[in-house]
Every structure is written in C-alpha cells, then in structure tokens.
Amino acid sequence: MSAISKKIILAVAVLAAVLLPFVLEDFRVFQLNLVLIYAIAILGLNILTGYGGQISLGHGAFYAVGAYTSAILISQVGMSAYLTIPVAALVCLVMGVLMGFPALRLAGHYLALATFALAIATPQLLKYKGIEHWTGGVQGIILDKPTPPFGLTLFGNELSEDRWLYLVILAIALGLFWLAHNLLSGRVGRAIVAIRDQPTAAAALGINLTFVKTATFGLSAAYTGIAGALSALAVAYIAPDSFPSFLSISLLVGVVVGGLGSISGAIFGALFIQFVPNVADELSKSAPWAVYGGMLLALAYVAPDGVMGILQKLKKRRQS
Fold first, then answer.
1. In the chain, fewer beta carbons within 10 Å around the N or the C end?
2. What percent of the chain has pLDDT over 70?
3. What does 38-50 look like in DSSP terms, one character per residue?
C-alpha cells in the first residue's frame, strides 16, 4: 500500500470519527468518549510496557491523579476545564519521573509489585481526612460538563455536552497518537526499544539508560494523567472508589489485547475493556466475570500477539 493510499484511508477514518457522534444517541457518544480516554491511557502504558519493557500495574494511580488534579483545579480554583488538562499532564509527568528512579533498580515482577502497591495505596490516600477539603473524601467531587462555546452548532445540529466533549477528546487523542507515532518511529523510539532488548549494548552505544528510562516512565504517566483529566470531564464525577486497583489491571489487559508495541492497537484494547464486560454481563448475570475471563482466555489463544498481530498476519498473507 502506497503512502498516498494510507493518507487517504487515514483521512476517511478521521472524517468518519468526526461524523460518528451525530448518528448516535448521547449515551453511545458518552461510551465513545470513554473508549477514546481509555485508548490514550492504554497508549501511555504501551509506551512503557510494549516499547520500554517495564511492566506497570499502577497506572490507575496516574489516571486518578490526573482526574483529581483537573477536578480540584476546576472546583477549588475555578480554572477552565481545558487548561486543567496540560496541568494534569505536567503533574503526572513529574510523578512518573519520580517513580522512574526506583524503576531503574527494579525489573520484571519486582517493578510490577512496586507499581501495584501504588495503585492499591492511591484510593486510600485520596480518602485521607487531612486533604478531604480538596478531594471531597469518600464523597468525591461533582463537576459540570463543559458546554459548547457560543452555542456552537455543526451540520445544523446543536451540540450536546457529550458530543462537544467527544470532539474535544478526539482532537486531543489524535494529537497524542501523532506525537507517539513520531517519537516511537524515530531515534527516541529506537533508544527505548534498544534498552528493552539489550541494555548493555545500548549503554555501550552511548544511550543514557537513566535518562531514557525515567523519561519513558514520565511520558507514559503524562499520557495516563491526560486520560484521567478527560475522564473527570466526561463523567463529571470522581471519587476514590472510582479508581480501584482493578483499573490498572484493565489498562494492562487493554495493552495486551491491542498488541504490545503497537500504537493503533490501543483503540482495540480500549474497545475491549469498555464493551466486553457489558457483553459478559448480558450473557450471564450470575457470573459475568467468569464469562469475561473466558473471553479473555479465548482471545489469548486465538490472538497471542493481540488484535494487531492478527491484522499484521492477514496483511502479510495478502502481500504474499
């Protein structure tokens, strides 16, 4: 497939994504908002795990910090909802870099356990009475969804809050996916992968292992923090129990389902963690998680390299 054909397909896909919310009900648009938000978080985790080889079971903590940063700045400071998104990214970037330093001494299951401890502790810390004035304690924080500016209409239709937010999230997601593609397909991406595969050889070639690994952790956390901030705007409510440790596991499931080391696979992973639990619940009200586990095992058997692995195999067969 030529470069021009790829650009045409991409342009058509983006146009279809822009038009999609205008043929769906608001609830479905809300679900699509969550899919895009999860896709951003999964992409961030995939940068760390799929490309960097560092397993994290604590990205739900960055997701929560991003959401609370946005919610606190809106409710307590009166900051514009849109301005809180880069602030949440910066806060999680710093938090990720700080977390990246102990990650230099940990690897594999030890790093997974350390980050999982962070995911378990974060909801409890958010309930701490000393910061209850800011976080709302167990009651959480209620927000108003951003409204379209100046009564904006598109294609003759007045935009609802969910449709407007969908367009905002879609624009941010496209920008973040474009940034990840450029970074990971260039020298930065090659350095990250080199450290993952052969750290000794990478160091011998002059790659600064400390800087690259901590920067990768920080970038991954920043992506997840942006997703958390957007989730606060989309759901318009946050509470400590909204970010259980299972959220971190779900994000890792999304990475594996979409395909490790795949940028576009984040979309498929997000669709899986958003819709498959609902399908499992409809199939069995008594044991929905058993059905979910069965679906996950079946997918792991059929597609051990994730959805993108299947697509890559189909592409090679068509070319041969």
1. C
2. 95
3. HHHHHHHHHIIII
Q: Say how far apart CA 198 and CA 256 lie, in whole Å.
A: 22
What's the whole-number mean pLDDT along residues 53-78? 92
* Residue in 305, 2, 30, 318 with CA at minimum distance from that of residue 166: 30
Residue range 9-53, pLDDT digits in tens: 888 888 888 888 888 888 999 999 999 999 999 999 999 998 988
User: Which DSSP state fits 147?
Assistant: P
**Distance in Å from the first CA to the final CA of the chain:** 13
Our CA dihedral for 243, 57, 46, 299, rounded to 10 degrees, sits at -90
Q: What tokens were used for 301? A: 């058997």
Q: Are 228 and 41 contacting, i.e. CB atoms less than 8 angstroms apart?
A: yes
pLDDT digits (tens, 9 = 90+) for 109-162: 788 888 888 899 999 999 888 888 888 888 999 998 888 887 666 655 667 888
Q: What is the pLDDT of residue 155?
A: 58
Residue spans of alpha helices (H) in the chain: 3-19, 26-46, 59-72, 81-103, 109-126, 132-135, 161-184, 187-197, 199-204, 209-235, 245-258, 265-283, 288-302, 306-319
The Cβ of residue 104 has, within 10 Å, a number of other Cβ atoms equal to: 14
- The rounded distance, in Å, linking the Cα atoms of 172 and 36 is 9
Q: What is the Cα–Cα distance from 74 to 105, expressed in whole angstroms?
A: 38
Residue 153: phi, psi to the nearest 5? Answer: -120, 155
| C-alpha closest to that of 265 among 42, 1, 32, 51 | 42
Angle, CA of 307, 50 and 217, to the nearest 5° = 140
Residue 73 CB coordination number (10 Å):
20
* Averaged pLDDT, 256-279: 91
Where does residue 54 fall: left (phi above 0), alpha (psi -120 to 50 degrees), or beta otherwise? beta
